[in-house]
Amino acid sequence: MVWLTTGIGGFLAAGVVLVMTIASYRTDQPLPHFAAGATIEAGEWRVVPLSVRIDTATPDGRKVRDGEKAVVVEVELTNRTAESSNSFYRLLTPDLPVGKGQPDVFLLRDRERAAELHPDLTERLAIVWTLPQDVPVPPMLKLAVHATDYKRRDNLRGQTGWSYNPHVAGIVDMPVQEGGPA
To answer: End-to-end alpha-carbon separation of the chain, Å?
Structure first.
């Protein structure tokens, strides 16, 4: 009888812990919305969204394929970490059917593809997604800004890093401009 009571009590305790864990992930707080020009602290990145435009070429001058258009988001990014990083490829997600591929990212100072950004260095970048020409782009584009948290010591290996607790820091609402560079 004691074993049965202990076993049932253990299962009930595990069930309560599971329910409490699931409930702790729930958030009733709406995501903050930001406008163009706002400074957003997104974990390892400080991002200032500048503009969005529809274009027929990428910032390095290459024309997009026939039947496609480019959605170009210009941002100012600062790497807040102690190491060079290219995680900016996952920083923004537009509310568009862009597929599963990563965007192309270009440094605006020299119109070359961006490989990594160095610590404490602010750069202006163009993040480019291509879409079929017939896919409508709303006049106000919503971009999710992804962030991660810094941990001085993780629970598994005791290492420091910025890749913990990925979450959406907020939504940027940006008016879409037609034509070439803004």
So the answer is: 77
Question: pTM of the entire structure?
Answer: 0.77
Helix runs in the chain, H state only: 2-25
The pair phi, psi for residue 30, each rounded to 5°, is -70, 155
Amino acid identity for residue 157 in this structure: R
pLDDT averages per 10-residue partition of the chain, 182 residues:
60 51 60 94 94 94 92 95 90 82 91 92 95 92 90 69 80 85 44
Longest CA–CA span in the chain (Å) reads 78
Q: CA 180 to CA 157: how far, in whole Å?
A: 48
75-to-22, 91, 107, 126, 155 alpha-carbon distances in Å: 35, 11, 10, 6, 34
Number of H helices, E strands in the chain: 1, 9
Task: Report the distance separating Cα 137 and Cα 79, nearest Å.
Answer: 30
159: Cβ contacts below 8 Å, ≥ 6 apart: 153
